[in-house]
Amino acid sequence: MILEMKVPSPGESITEVEIAEWLVQDGDYVEKDQAIAEVDSDKATLELPAEASGTITLKAEEGDAVAVGAVVCLIDTSAEPDADATTTYDGGDEGSNEKNVEKELREEQNETKDTGAKAPNPADGKKASGIASPAAKKVLAEKGVDAKDVPGSGKDGRITKNDAVNAVPSMGTPTGGNRGTSRSKMSMLRRKVAERLVEAKNTTAMLTTFNEVDMSPIFELRKQYKEDFKSKHGVSLGFMSFFTLAVVRALKQYPAVNSMIDGKEMITYDFVDISIAVSGPKGLMVPVIRNAENLSFRGVESEVKRLALKARDGKITVDEMTGGTFTISNGGVFGSMLSTPIINPPQSGILGMHNIVERPVAIDGHVEIRPIMYVALSYDHRIIDGKESVGFLVAVKEALENPTELLMDNDVKRALEM
Q1: Span 72-92, mean pLDDT?
Q2: Topology (CATH level 3) of domain 119-166
Q3: Is 381 annotated in the active site?
Q4: H/E segment holding residue 363
């Protein structure tokens, strides 16, 4: 029986996906529920599992945009696994390696085929000087290099793609360095992120306000309770729970920051869904912590860990990345000192965290060394005034510098559920 596998719908508003990578080869035997491909939507990268066991026939190429509901492969469910060969799903062996070698040889032969010029006869002792493979011709054309000026390392002196990539254009004073370039197609997710960032810059009146936070109180709390917190709850007491709960408190004081524009109307939310920007293998992803106003320190840390692991492993779902009323972005994990984060539309605000550096500060007339973090709030000035934006960021700063009173109601153990 031949089973037609169709592209499932990853989400309500998604009409097509892109084949990012086939995890199997044409003709492989696959097991039911085995991941056979990674597909990109404009919101996430998802795995495509086999619907049945059998021999697979691929019907789309990597990079193809495929409509939801279209057939991407066929599975012959009557086929039996080859007892002498191990499929890619089991890690591969000599049988699969031989297939890869044969494929590479075919690709190499195709690359070195002539495209109209008569192939040189090796018997006449002449070299194919200046004759380039199709891929090499394209690279040389982009670099403005004449084929006759490039020595070929292929058969009979043919110019290979690698020769073309390493060819240095004549610029008067040769440098001898590699001046090659590479070109790759952007994934659907990356293209969508790019579109949204440009949209945010072009359609919002975005401004950024800055402040600094003395992280000493949080350092002291983490130093005292971090180990007990982890042993009891199975997650670390990180900075994200403090920042998330500080943002929840500030949003209650300044609800305009927890709003969005819809046409001529302003929508204000009575709940707080916090988007957290994380770096995944396919680029920036923004999973959402739902109803953060109802979460404790343990609840926030557990959600952050769960969503971050799913994003890292490429298993995050579209629903888990949809929505959000406010975003927190932590560039500090990469060493960022200060930045102006871009709003995640249709939201109206985003808080940027940065690295923590010991700095000299004036405390009661004396200079002390304190761990300081710069924070930034980018906001849509169309609905958030300067007074509200500055007040919001000051409220975040106050909560972070006095967490015991403002975030824990003067009962640390109860807040941490110790």
Answers
A1: 69
A2: Dihydrolipoamide Transferase (4.10.320)
A3: yes
A4: strand 356-363
